[in-house]
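#struct-help
A.M.: can someone run this one for me? Single chain, 177 residues.
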Amino acid sequence: MFAAIKEQQKGVDVCINNAGLGHPERLLNGKTGSWKNIIDVNVLALSICTREAYQSMKERNVDDGHIININSLCGHKVIPFADLHFYTATKYAVTALTEGLRQELRAENTHIRATSISPGLVATEFISRASTNNPDQVAGIYAAYKALQAKDIASAVTYVLSAPPHVQIGELVVEPI
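D.P.: on it. Structure tokens below:
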């Protein structure tokens, strides 16, 4: 993917890591393969894309790029629904990785910024995919928790990107009211 971007667009100035995967696998009897799948998408792929985006910026002397990780409220607290504890653990990893990235970027004396955007429940297909194919459970979750819309997260990304060059928005928590 990054080779194609380099060929077509010269490189990456902004990387938005937005992939997220959850399986309803309990810790007491979950499937190892499902856990590995969640780690591959939520942690490893995010880390690979971050590395490749940074290398693209560095190669082209881009010193004002931005890496944004779409995280989750689950990256800050354990939310008790849908047996998503393993998913939650990966989102805690995203929180730690984003802070580690900021520290590494500072050590490299670059002005590339790193931000974690942590939304609450967003009205996407995530919950229905992460549930046990139980439409009543999905409806119950959306009834119990007010959901954000995808455009709300897009607005948060735009806000972060529009910050002045001297402003680092390290973490942005987005919740519905």
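A.M.: thanks! The first strand starts at residue 14 and ends at 17.
D.P.: also worth noting: Strands lie at 14-17, 66-70, 113-119, 171-174.
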